[in-house]
């Protein structure tokens, strides 16, 4: 047990603690204008991140790194955690997968003795790193977006007390999408041409879980799954899949594969001979590369994210700060994930009396307890954790109150030069759904 944590040599004043904790709890919009001399100057607190900084997911990995760096910089300007600044360290997970992810996190613990690991996503089971975290007794916040995390935590909440998924599990994409389409129909914004829905997925756990959720609940919303096809990725030639779609045109095409370049190629090839189908794609269109490749073929595509910067006062202020620091083309939606995750952890740690180094399980259990009690409004909306699952609630599918769950955001590209407009859910929507040009035609 660390005496540094239990009896710190430097004890910040009550005024500094309350000021810092309150500012962090109000959300990121306030932070941009606060710097009143409270900058942290105590012993640094090492915080780690394992991210895909190279290889095929590097576009996201770099933004995860940026998001954590920005959060640490802002928190340090507020006085850090009880006067101690955060010092970030990074390890590359490259092509990801459980062995590589585990090794990267283990290096953060062994080399830098990090008190917490704040990640974006890493492809894998989503339930392997948690054992490394449990053995070290530290805190882990990630955005793997997998039901595997929820199931693991439920299996042994005491062992996995320190592992948190900062967004809802991917399962919620399925019923959430069906509920979204139902809403379009009820408002008269969209009318199905038939009851057929084509579902296209890749072999990974993430894409498969979402596709299966759509398949299993589609009948409840009056849908027949007319095509359920798994494609090998990366994929640039969509001809065989498109031939099946054109042979039996569905009213909706739902693609749960998520890599932006692959999805862009689908739209380019679909646009040559489109079917009158609403096209929904998973996550990839939120990355600027999708629009850069698909160009005008991207207009009309609907996509969703369970975690992304909202297009409101708090979210747009974050976007401005983020792009001023990292460039106009920086992907702030990816960076928002570890950014909010870091604030959730830092706020809880301040309320718990400090962080804990590897082996200081007693203090980190206090931090975890405060995390479980928080309702934190950040740039991605509300983070509130499901008890004994340590994953964020989803609004509106899982909870009906927008102040108690993270919004399942649906966006549509309506201008190829701009990010998608937020079309659902209320009260967060900033624009209305538009029929895609290929349906109008």
Automatic annotation (TrEMBL):
Database matches in PROSITE patterns: TAT (PS51318)
Biological processes, Gene Ontology terms: amino acid transport
InterPro entries referenced in this protein's UniProt entry, alphabetically: BCAA_transport, Leu-bd, Peripla_BP_I, TAT_signal
Keywords for the protein's UniProt record, in alphabetical order: Amino-acid transport, Signal, Transport
SUPFAM superfamilies assigned to the protein according to its UniProt record, in alphabetical order: Periplasmic binding protein-like I (SSF53822)
A Pfam family reported for this protein in Swiss-Prot or TrEMBL: Peripla_BP_6
Domain Leucine-binding protein, first and last residues per copy: 44-390
Lineage: superkingdom: Bacteria
Protein family (similarity comment): Belongs to the leucine-binding protein family.
Protein name listed in UniProt: Amino acid/amide ABC transporter substrate-binding protein (HAAT family)
